[in-house]
C-alpha cells in the first residue's frame, strides 16, 4: 500500500495527489532504494531534499521517491541513519542542487536521472556516482 505524503512534506492537496500517482507509475509501486513492492511493505512518497525555509520545489516528481518503512525502519530509516550513503546514491539531494540534475541509484531503473513529470532517463556509465551499498 502506498501511504499519502506526510503532512510536514505536503505540497498541497492537488499536487500531493499528482505526485503520488506519478511515483506509483514511475516506480512501479516499489521502494526506490530496495525494490520492495507496496504489496509487501508500506511505501510512502519521501522528498529527496529537506524543506527548510520552503526553498525546495515540491511539485516536481524529480524531488520525490517512494521508500519503504518509517522514519526509523526500512529504507526511510536507513536514509535517516546513513545520510552519507543516501547522498552518495542520490536518494537525498543537497538543498542547493536541482534534483533533476542529480542521478539516483534506483532499485527499479538502475542509475537514472528523474524529471519533473515522472520521466526516467538512464545515465551513461561514466556520468554518475558509483553505487555504494554498505549492507
UniProtKB/TrEMBL annotation:
**What domain of life is recorded for the organism?**
Bacteria
Give the protein's recorded name: Uncharacterized protein
The source organism is Actinomadura violacea
